[in-house]
């Protein structure tokens, strides 16, 4: 699935098993939103079906995503990507609580900056608990998991979340792993260059083989530079 974050003209996007829910985690300013939007574009292009892209409007306007240079800005594919602006976790819960009522299930739902939608103070007051934010994330992830699992009984639907972490480890990894087995992490590899790694935390298969994609953000373009196995780095 690591190929799905890049332009299909630069890398072959293979039709392999895809986990219904995936997490992309990386430091600030590493191009996460660009990777998510390229993923949304690829899903819409391959399936010719709608994709829902959920994000905070002001954050998106302040960090507009970059796509591969070969993508035509006037492509009809962009009309298949539905932008849905949300302010907090309550709006995420409302959306997925009614997911089964949709006449047509999107082929993918992408949520940018998922972790930042949970305000610490608001969650603490809501649950009267100092760990209210963690409780809110657990309940929301459980709702998302159930909604996507139910939707996949009718037609294929993927959910991709992103979160920001500082340091080398994914923020609240122990919570995410309960609901998400496929996790991608981004690490810097020099000025403007990054490494995207994927790991599978499925209990049935344990840690899967790690693959690495190298990319860069240059002149407002998302530039794919190649994929290797971990032992080659």
Automatic annotation (TrEMBL):
One of its GO terms (molecular function) is single-stranded DNA binding. One of its GO terms (biological process) is double-strand break repair via homologous recombination. GO terms for cellular component: Shu complex. PANTHER family: ATPASE SWSAP1, PTHR28653. This is ATPase AAA-type core domain-containing protein. It comes from Citrus clementina.
């Amino acid at each position: 699935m690591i190929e799905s974050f890049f332009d299909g003209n630069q890398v072959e996007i293979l039709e392999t098993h895809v986990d219904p829910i995936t997490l992309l985690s990386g430091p600030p300013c590493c191009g996460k939103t660009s990777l998510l939007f390229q993923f949304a574009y690829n899903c819409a292009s391959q399936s010719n079906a709608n994709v829902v892209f959920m994000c905070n409007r002001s954050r998106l306007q302040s960090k507009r995503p970059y796509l591969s240079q070969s993508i035509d800005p006037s492509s009809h594919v962009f009309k298949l990507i539905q932008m849905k602006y949300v302010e907090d976790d309550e709006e995420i819960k409302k959306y997925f609580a009614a997911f089964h009522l949709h006449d047509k299930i999107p082929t993918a739902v992408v949520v940018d900056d998922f972790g930042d939608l949970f305000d610490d103070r608001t969650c603490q007051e809501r649950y009267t608990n100092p760990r209210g934010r963690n409780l809110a994330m657990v309940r929301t992830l459980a709702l998302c998991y159930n909604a996507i699992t139910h939707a996949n009984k009718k037609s294929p639907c993927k959910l991709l979340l992103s979160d920001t972490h500082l340091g080398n480890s994914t923020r609240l990894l122990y919570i995410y792993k309960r609901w998400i087995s496929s996790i991608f992490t981004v690490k810097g590899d020099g000025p403007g260059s990054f490494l995207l790694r994927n790991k599978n935390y499925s209990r049935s298969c344990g840690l899967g083989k790690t693959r690495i994609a190298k990319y860069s953000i240059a002149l407002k373009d998302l530039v794919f530079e190649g994929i290797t196995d971990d032992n080659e780095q």
